[in-house]
Amino acid sequence: MIKGILFDLDDTLYNSSEFVEIARREAVKSMIDAGLNIKFEEAMGILNKIIKDKGSNYGKHFDDLVKAVLGRYDPKIITTGIITYHNVKVALLRPYPHTIKTLIELKAMGLKLGVITDGLTIKQWEKLIRLGIHPFFDDVITSEEFGLGKPHLEFFKYGLSRMGLKPEETVYVGDRVDKDIKPAKELGMITVRILKGKYKDMVDNKYSDYTIKSLQELVDIVKNLKQ
Amino acid sequence: MIKGILFDLDDTLYNSSEFVEIARREAVKSMIDAGLNIKFEEAMGILNKIIKDKGSNYGKHFDDLVKAVLGRYDPKIITTGIITYHNVKVALLRPYPHTIKTLIELKAMGLKLGVITDGLTIKQWEKLIRLGIHPFFDDVITSEEFGLGKPHLEFFKYGLSRMGLKPEETVYVGDRVDKDIKPAKELGMITVRILKGKYKDMVDNKYSDYTIKSLQELVDIVKNLKQ
After folding, report:
1. What is the CATH number of domain B4-14+94-226?
2. CA nearest B180: which of B101, B106, B118?
3. CATH architecture of the domain with residue range A4-15+94-226
4. How much is the mean pLDDT over chain B?
5. Record's NCBIfam families (chains A, B) (predicted)?
6. Average pLDDT of B125-139?
7. Do B125 and A90 touch (CB under 8 A)?
8. What kind of fold does domain B17-92 have according to CATH?
9. Checking CA distances to B57, which of A38, B63, B153, B225 falls within 20 to 30 Å?
């Protein structure tokens, strides 16, 4: 008997890959306009290396980019990048098509819904609130809260216990085979892989019980599972 | 011979007192709507005490408010407050009337213009960029950069040296007698007090060379001083 669904957030409920790419590119363009004296593609190369080295939650990507290019701290250029990034975020953050309709139907079926996500708690909550979908979720579990993220099985176990769910009565929905679907399957959850974001072409014949292209397909899957 | 003007930022170039008050009130209202179980005026009392105790740049005001009211950390409520505060900031940050026209005229007179302000560098730059007036200023000097703020004379001396200005050739424009006008006068600058913000009713017969109600009055003052 299916009692609940755990969702990944980034690239599962909204287009994170696209938003982040556009926000970074627009931020770099605005920094060049503010005086960062470098060609655009070269700046993107440096920025992507900084993000790869320091991680996406480092918080000083633009500071390091400016220092790498100009050899000094320049608050005007850094702040210009931060503001542009933020403006793009506010403008572009919205759920994938059919997401809200699907969540309404799933709640109407009496299911517990939760989000389990890698990232900083306030940052992930900001996305959910700006996406306007936070009231659908009974709980939101972040790797920052637990101290360990995906694909660690302990993190998924912690998420299930916070939700009061057993693995076999839980559907897991995520986009990444390695970090979402494989550990969820290993714990005994019913796994639904959504083909979205930059990992959508990864092949998997082993861990996904279902593969969907749009979240709305989830409604029929859960209906069949509940019978 | 007047060569430059140093401006205070908050409540001198835009209505900081009003913006901060509205942003805090709206943030608290949204937090109550998100589940902060307390009466509005009581919440504002607690928040104002936290801000008074920890300072305005503390960064965890809403975290502390939620902990004080609920006895626990609640990321949904905290993030709701942060987003509302930010949305109000984006909506309300604009210069006082006549500010941009006045800055255009002052630049056309060949003057160096600078901002000297207490606060965090990125935060003060964010205000200037969102206000759209940052291109008028040859330099922006913050207390965070210097390590010491107003009314310390050293901070004003540091600002003058960054601008390449001597006190006697510099006009200082600010709203506060104690933190702006008094130290500027003591250093030998020509002081212009603008009657704006929450300190506008403070009486001063000693340190203000000029008192203005709107920034545009500055143009005639400087014209006369340059003759």
Report:
1. 3.40.50.1000
2. B118
3. 3-Layer(aba) Sandwich (3.40)
4. 96
5. CTE7 (TIGR02253), HAD-SF-IA-v1 (TIGR01549), HAD-SF-IA-v3 (TIGR01509)
6. 96
7. no
8. DNA polymerase; domain 1 (1.10.150)
9. B153
Residue B227 has pLDDT above 90, yes or no: no
Nearest Cβ partner for B130 among A83, A90, A142: A83
Check: CB of residue B194 under 8 Å from CB of residue B175: yes
Of all residues in chain B, the one with the smallest CA distance to A60 is B122
On whether the CB atoms of residues B17 and B198 are closer than 8 A, the answer is: yes
Is B137 in a helix, a strand, or coil?
coil
d(CA A153, CA A161): 12
Give the least confident one: A1-10, A86-95, A174-183, B174-183: A86-95
pLDDT surpasses 90 at B83: yes
Which residues does B contribute to its contact with A (CB < 8 Å)?
75-76, 78-80, 82-83, 86, 90, 121-122, 125-126, 129-130, 134, 140, 142
Amino acid at site A164: G
Predicted confidence (pLDDT) per residue in B48-67, tens digit: 999 999 998 899 999 999 99
**Four-point Cα dihedral B91, B94, B96, B98, nearest 10:** -130
Strand B112-117 and strand A190-194: pairing? unpaired
* Whether the Cβ atoms of residue A194 and residue A10 lie closer than 8 Å to each other: no
Overall residue count recorded for chain B in this entry: 227
Shortest distance, CA A75 to any CA of chain B (angstroms)? 6
Structure tokens at B227: 């003759």
Q: How far apart are CA A163 and CA B146, in angstroms?
A: 49
Asked if residue B111 lies in contact with residue B5, where contact means CB atoms within 8 angstroms, the answer is: yes
List Cα–Cα distances, A187 to A66, A118, A181, A184, B78, in angstroms.
Answer: 45, 18, 10, 5, 32
Are A76 and B130 inside 8 Å of each other by CB?
Answer: no
Number of H helices, E strands in chain B: 10, 6
